[in-house]
Design goal:
This protein is α/β, with parallel strands linked by helices. It has two domains: about 5-135, Rossmann fold; about 135-400, Rossmann fold, CATH 3.40.50. Helix content is about 45%, strand content about 15%. It has helices spanning about 15-20, 35-45, 60-70, 85-95, 110-135, 155-170, 185-190, 200-205, 210-215, 245-255, 270-280, 290-305, 330-335, 345-355, 360-365, 370-380, 395-400, and strands at about 5-10, 25-35, 50-55, 75-80, 100-105, 140-145, 175-180, 220, 225-230, 260-265, 280-290, 315-320, 340-345. The strands form two sheets. An eight-stranded mixed β-sheet has the order 8-9-7-10-6-11-12-13, with helices on both faces. α13 links the parallel β12 and β13. The longest helix has 27 residues, at about 110-135. The relative contact order is 0.10. It binds adenosine-5'-triphosphate and magnesium ion. Magnesium ion binds near residues 153, 154, 181 and 264.
Length: about 400
Amino acid sequence: MAITIIVAEAKAAVNEVTNILRRDRGLDIVAEAHDGRETIDLARTLRPNIVLLAASIIGLDAISVVEEITLASPDTAVIVLVDDADLELIRRLMRAGARDCVVRPVKDDLVSTVRTVNETMQKQRDAAVASSAAQAHQGSVIAIYSPQGGAGKSMLAANLSVALAKAVAGTKERVVLVDLNLQFGDIDLMLNLNPVNTIAGLAQKGHTGVDSELVEQYLTTHEESGLKILVAPSTPQYAESVTVYTVEQAIEALRETYHYIIIDTPSQLQDTTLAALDAANTILLVTSLDLLALHKTRTALDMLRQLYPPEKIQVILNRANSEVGITIQDVESALGSSLRAQIPSDGRLVVTSVNEGKPFVLSSSTTVIARRIQALASEILGRDASGNDGGPGGGGFLKRIFG
Ligand SMILES: Nc1ncnc2c1ncn2[C@@H]1O[C@H](COP(=O)(O)OP(=O)(O)OP(=O)(O)O)[C@@H](O)[C@H]1O
Ligand SMILES: [Mg+2]
C-alpha cells in the first residue's frame, strides 16, 4: 500500500518537494495545503501516514500545527522541513511531536526519510496492537487447593477442566489444566493420558524463560474434550527441577493463549503451590464434613485471608451428603464463609471413573455429582456448560441443578 502524504508548503515552493516525492511510486500525495489551519483540517479528515510540513508555513506557527496534528490524528507522522539547522527550533518541533526534521535544500534522500519514519510508525502501531491484544487476553487462573490430602482436589480439577473444555469446544476459548502435584501428580492417570512431555521438561528447556509457544509444546491433549494439560513430572525425583520461576513463567505464558487455567495443587504449601495461589484470580478451597478437615481448612482460610482479598477465596464442600453429624450450617459458621458449591459423595462412580481414566462429567454426565460440577463450570463461564439442550434461560440451568 502506498504511503499517503500531505505536503504543506507555500504555493511558490510546493513543486520543489512534490517533484522529488512523485518519482517514487510507493508514495501518494493525497493533498497539498498552503497554510497551517488548512493543513490541520486536511490531516484530520484524510488521516495520512505523513504530513510534510514547511516550518515557514503561514497562518499558524509550525509548532502549533505539529501539536494539533499529533493530537487530531495520532497515527500521522509529521516531518518538518526547516530552513536551517536551528537546533532550538528543531528541539521544540520534536517536543511538539514531529517525528523528524529535514534541513533545506530538500534532496532525493527525502524519500528515504519518509519511508523510514513511516516504517517506525508502523512498527510502533503493531507493537501497541499486540500489547493491547495481550492485555485483553489475560486468561483467568483458578487454583484448586486444600490443606487436607485426599480432599478431592484432583477429582474436582480434572472434572471441572473437562466440563469447561467441553463447553467451550467450537469457540475461540481454550482451557488448560496444570498439575502442580510435582511429586505425585495423578491427573494423567485420571484422564488416561500418555504424555510425551511434562512440566519437568519445560523447566529444563525454559530455565531462561518460558513463552506461550514453548509451553504449548509441553502440553498433552485430552482428545475427548479438547482440554490441554501440563502434566506433572513422571517421577518424584524430577519434582525439584521445577522451580517457582518455571511455575510463574508458565502461568503467565498460558494466560496469553488460554482463557481458563485450572491448577491442581498438592496439600503441602510449598513455594510452587504459593506461586500458583499468588497468580490465581480465584482459589477454590476444597473441604469436607470432617472435623480435622474443617480445622485445617479454617487455618488455611485465616492465612489466605491475610494474603488475598476475601472474594478471591471460595470454599467448595466435597462429599457434601455424608451422614456424619456435621451440617452445612456448621461448616459455614465454622469457616465464616458461605459455600461456593457442594459436591456430593458418589464412591462407586468416582472410583470407577478414576480406574477407567474417564472423567464422570463425560461418562456419566447426568448424575448429580456431574451436574454439580457442570453448574460450577457454568457459573465460571457465565453460560450453560451442561451440554444439555436449552440455554441458561434466566438462570434456568442452575434451577434444574439446585432445584
Ligand atoms: N465426591 C466424592 N465422592 C466419592 N469419592 C471421592 C469424591 N471426591 C474424591 N473422592 C475420592 O477420594 C480420593 C481422593 O480424591 P483426590 O485424589 O481427588 O483428592 P486430592 O485432594 O487430590 O488428594 P491429594 O491431596 O492426594 O492430591 C480419590 O480416590 C477419589 O476418587
Ligand atoms: Mg490430588
